[in-house]
Amino acid sequence: TEKLSGLEHLLESAKMKLAKPVTPIGLNGLLARVAGTELATWLSMAILRTQSQATYTPKNLGHFGLGLRCYTHFTSPIRRYADLVVHRALLGYLEKNPTPQGNLASIAEHISTTERRAMLAERDTVDRYAAEFLKDRVGATFGAVISGVTAAGVFVTLDDVGASGLVPIRFLGRDYFHFEPKRHRLIGRRSGIEYALGQRVSVVLLETQGVTGKLTFGLEGVSATETREPFRHRGGGGKGKERKKETTRKKKR
Question: How far apart are CA 4 and CA 26, in angstroms?
Fold first, then answer.
């Protein structure tokens, strides 16, 4: 519900509306409306983040993406263990000699957990190889798309390499950026500059860490030393000075 609310806010900013109830046909319709435009990547990423990651369960809950009310695994190019569980059940039924497979709920939970573990391992491996591949290109400029927005900065994915990394908020310019999680964007308090999900940017590779797979980028045209200025309250900050004096007096005591 919270993710859908965030998607609704995003669509409102693009003067679009999310039809209820939410269906694959409705989401595909939104994507079709922006196909070939600058909004295509942005909306595709937003819809992907709105949906929950699939989990295995013995309950027949259907398949949202395929629009099926009834669904089960049977075969797959990567031969998932879930397929094997279904094969055994079907063979047992056909031979009229069902083979006990233990607690299906427990098996489903185990498969979901190990799948996520494998995905994280795969992601870490790709990140490390990407960092190793790019270690000699520090200072180079790349075309990229903003693939994630946080209070710490924006994550970008490079066009040619597919590698991802962070542009820390201190490298976004001399401004204070307000993070709007529902709209997946950062907005400069003074400048009004906006960095949002799906936005295209040019970035400069600043640092690679092969062991961790971490890549750090800066925005092209924004100096790496151009960090944010300290925020000062208007009016001279008299109260702040008084508090500082009081603190000094307490320390002396």
Answer: 13
Measured in degrees and rounded to the nearest 5, phi and psi for residue 45 equal: -65, -40
Confidence of residue 230 (pLDDT cuts 50, 70, 90): very low
Spatial CB neighbours of 83, under 8 Å, sequence gap ≥ 6: 73, 74, 75, 76
Describe the crossing of helices 81-94 and 104-134 by its angle, rounded to 10 degrees.
150
Number of other residues whose CB lies within 10 A of the CB of residue 1? 5
Whether the CB-CB separation of 195 and 146 falls below 8 Å is answered with yes
> pLDDT digit string (tens) for 73-95?
887 666 788 888 888 888 888 88
| Better-scored residue on pLDDT, 130 or 239 | 130
Q: Are 142 and 202 in contact (CB under 8 A)?
A: yes
Task: Read off φ and ψ for residue 107, nearest 5 degrees.
Answer: -65, -45
> DSSP code of 230?
P
pLDDT over 90 (residue 121): yes
- What number of CA atoms fall less than 13 Å from residue 106's CA on the CB side? 3
